[in-house]
Amino acid sequence: MEKVRPGLWSIRVPLPGVPRHVLVYVFETDAGPYLVDSGMDTPEIRAHHESRASRTLAAVPTHPATAWEIAQATRRSPLSETRAFTVLVVLSDLFARLTALTSRGALRQHPGTPARWSRTET
């Protein structure tokens, strides 16, 4: 991740083949970070996102857990030792996957604050 200017970051996303990578951008707002994705749609990109969704689903327990708890289960290093802006990006990305998995019926979002998710019964 590279700081382009205050409040704007670029993230290099490697791709198989040509082009070798694309840049996505994250910008900070009062409402939190926003991710601007290039929207590239290839079988490899779809496979990458499905793989990430599968890893996220595997990290969600059968009992309700917060996004922070789920993020901790998917990372090699503790979020508490990560820069604040990077934590915002990690959690924003995770919220997108949790929302997608909930809409597919793979997760259940529990009412209350903070939000909690659990795997649905199969």
Oligomer: single chain
The spatial strand order of the largest sheet comes to 1-2-3-4
Estimate the mean pLDDT confidence.
87
Query: What's the SSE pattern?
Result: EEEEHEHHEE
Q: Roughly what fraction of the amino acids lie in strands? A: 25-35%
Briefly note the structural class of the backbone: alpha+beta
- Reported CATH architecture: Orthogonal Bundle
Regarding CATH, which class? Mainly Alpha
- Give the total of beta strands: 7
- The count of domains is 1
Annotated CATH topology = Arc Repressor Mutant, subunit A
- Give the proportion of residues in helices: 25-40%
Shape field: globular
**Major beta-sheet overview:** 4 strands, antiparallel
Number of helices: 3
Describe it.
This protein has 122 residues and is of the alpha+beta class. The protein has one domain (2-119): Arc Repressor Mutant, subunit A (Orthogonal Bundle), CATH 1.10.10. It has helices at 43-59, 67-74, 84-103, and strands spanning 2-5, 8-14, 21-29, 32-36, 65-66, 107-110, 116-119. Strand 6 (107-110) and strand 7 (116-119) form a beta hairpin. Helix 1 crosses helix 3 (84-103) and helix 2 crosses helix 3 (84-103). It is globular and about 40 Å long. It starts with a strand and ends with a strand. The relative contact order is 0.15.
Describe the structure concisely for a colleague.
By secondary structure, the protein is of the alpha+beta class. Helices cover 37% and strands 29% of the residues. It starts with a strand and ends with a strand.
